[in-house]
Amino acid sequence: MGNETPTRAVKITVGIASLTAARQIERCLRALEAQEDAPEFDVVVAHNPALGGVAGLREKFPAVRFVGRVGWWAPIQLMALAASEARGEIFMMTEDHCVPEPDWVRRLCDALQTGRAAAGGPIDTRRDATAAAWAFYFLDFFRYLSPVVEGVTPAISVCNVAYRRADLEAIRECWETGFHETEVHWRLCAKHGPLWMEPKARIIMLRNVGFGGAMGECYGQGRLFAAKRVEFADTKKRIFYLLLAPLLPVLLLIRRAQKGLSDAPGQFLKSLPALMAMVLAWSWGEGMGYLTRRPPQKLALAEDIEAQEIE
Fold this sequence. Notes:
single chain, Spore Coat Polysaccharide Biosynthesis Protein SpsA, Chain A, 2 domains, eight-stranded mixed beta sheet, 11 strands
């Protein structure tokens, strides 16, 4: 990173979906500059054109490609934009609030071997994060809390993932306007093998969100997930999901409790009241998505209360 020209071939492209603010993008880019023993890679940042501070980042990081598209604001849209701009044989993806470890590029690239559809790694957060921030983390990333087991896994996150770009291009029609990880991974696994978890390819998620903002985002993300899930489903399947919606709060909370009480019991218990509220917000949004088949008009992303630094 930092010396590539626009026409020079690279082995890896790292895509960053920018959801929060310029300072988070810069923090992520600095961590990528500090990668150790990494194969050659370039970086593309997909952002909402209305996001402030991007011009200054272009000056600080002239080798990074910043791409935006008017009207594209949702995470799945920005991920699709980043994927469409990839040039490397391997495409790695994360989000701007995530900070990779110094060996992240090397380890995740090495984990993407033949017979594996995609490779991912753990996603951790600060142990001293607020109760609201921990609840927000558990809702989305509980599966990826360290420790994780190396090997075949049912799920990996687009915040910490590597794909072969040729494999993605072969199913481009399913992600070109919205990179929905569940559908993309299902398509890739059907052709190329299972997903793989690499415990040493670690990133740290640093979103310090407030309770109110997190509630709004949880509702919107739940509705967006459901609308995409039933976009092409028949009526019978949509009704099935809708009838199961009242059970979602219990199912979601049980899954998170199993991981949280095992590996971060103190943080889980202090976040439990906020987590219960966020689970309800997500479930309500998911139910509305099944009912209407429509995503939210605009996804309200929770703002960071303050910048956080890695300890």
